[in-house]
Please model this.
Amino acid sequence: RIACVEAVTDFTTMPNWQAIGKALAILPKIGGSFSIVGSCLILRDIGRKWQNVPLTTEVMAHITVANLFIAFWECFLSTWMAPKDSPAFMAVGNTVTCSMQGFISVIMSIILEI
Model:
């Protein structure tokens, strides 16, 4: 019984939740930045030869635009749009910005699924 009490009160093995929360707030911004750059490069290449492109290239352009919106609104802005009083790290938004982010993310995800 004493071993159980010691195991429960041993806080040295518990994860650092504050550091994990910060990492989960920062890492999507990095990945979103890479996705934004990649989407812009794809759109640049498609835009250079837009005349007489096949249907598959047009579909790819539309998917890339939707991916660009998702990368910006969902990944890059991630926790910045959350309300200030929420426990999210780097939260500076309000309920309107949070709702707008959710709405745009859902619409773009539906577009990508179609």
Notes: Residues 26 and 67 are 19 Å apart (CA to CA). Residues 1-9 have pLDDT under 50 and may be disordered. Residues 17-48 form the longest helix (32 residues).
